Q: What sequence folds into this?
């Protein structure tokens, strides 16, 4: 089963909701450590391309299986 991602750029709050994270600080920690999905800034706002988020999830599944 492959859940459908929204057809728009995602916010850190969207990732918190999707992955049931404790807070947006987790998303920002991922970004600082370069361990989360690739994001980009538009002004002061952080966004994520749903395709990049899906690729990141898939890479996490591959790493878990190895």
A:
């Amino acid at each position: 089963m492959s859940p459908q991602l929204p057809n728009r750029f995602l916010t850190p709050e969207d990732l918190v909701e999707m992955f049931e994270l404790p807070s947006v600080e987790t998303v920002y920690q991922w970004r600082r450590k370069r361990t989360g999905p690739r994001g980009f800034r538009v002004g002061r706002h952080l966004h994520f391309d749903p395709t990049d988020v899906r690729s990141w999830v898939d890479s996490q599944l591959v790493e878990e299986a190895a």
